[in-house]
Write a structure and sequence with these properties.
Length: 245
């Protein structure tokens, strides 16, 4: 079974509202380790999250009755305003986290975990995913262009399956599109790095998800981390023993 794979506790979660790379179970940090600015931002983010939760319910109701009530427009405007403030605060906080990552990672792990679970802003998602799995400075990134010049025995299989990966997504659905090409590139490069696994169709959906967030070189590095350090490769070996099939 997939649950039998012993991997680090960081995992990739996809929901209908957001996609996040969640952090491991983290040790508590004392509030005294946070600066007054950090405490203020965290408190404000909590407040805005509560407002957003309330207003999102209100906004769904407003959208259904907007044409029947002028007051609905006022409620909708209020919900949109609260959302705007939440996004602004979130951007400020995540910008600080990224810029001070090494310090934040050591001193404010609990707070980072909580923020990740609430959702990483789309603009920061690519770099934060890389930071969370330590993929941002992998030496193998420099080998990526050379791997693409090589020939993989899996190329025919990869080409065959490309159109089946997120076939309704705009980035991948067109034949010979940029999305299909970079997906092929990453899958080919990995098949050369990990000869035992080679290529497995299911893994292309992981790569496709990464490519929706970041360029192909970065997606390749994160994928290598997930497959090797977090042992997802155990699910894609030819025997598929870890799946319990």
């Amino acid at each position: 079974m997939a649950s039998q794979v012993a991997s680090p506790s960081t995992s990739l979660h996809t929901t209908s509202s957001s996609t996040t790379l969640s952090t491991p179970a983290l040790s508590p940090s004392s509030p005294s380790q946070l600066s007054p600015d950090d405490l203020e931002l965290l408190a404000k983010l909590e407040e805005q999250n509560r407002l957003l939760e309330t207003d999102s319910k209100s906004l769904r109701s407003v959208n259904g009755s907007r044409r029947n009530s002028g007051s609905s427009l006022v409620s909708s405007s209020s919900a949109s305003s609260n959302l705007s403030h939440l996004e602004e605060d979130s951007w400020i906080l995540w910008g600080r986290i990224v810029n001070e990552w090494e310090d934040v990672r050591k001193k404010k792990e609990k707070q980072v975990k909580e923020l990740v679970h609430k959702g990483i802003p789309h603009h920061f998602r690519a770099i934060v995913w890389q930071l969370l799995c330590s993929a941002q400075s992998m030496p193998i990134k420099d080998q990526y262009s050379e791997l693409l010049k090589m020939t993989s025995p899996c190329e025919k299989l990869i080409r065959r399956d490309i159109a089946r990966t997120y076939p309704e997504h705009n980035f991948f659905k067109e034949k010979d599109s940029l999305g299909q090409e970079v997906l092929f590139n990453v899958m080919k490069a990995y098949s050369l790095v990990d000869r035992e696994v080679g290529y497995c169709q299911g893994s292309a959906f992981i790569v496709g998800l990464l490519l929706m967030q970041m360029p192909e070189e970065e997606a390749f590095c994160v994928f290598v981390k997930l497959m090797q350090d977090y042992r997802l490769r155990e699910l894609f070996k030819p025997s598929m023993a870890e799946l319990g099939l």
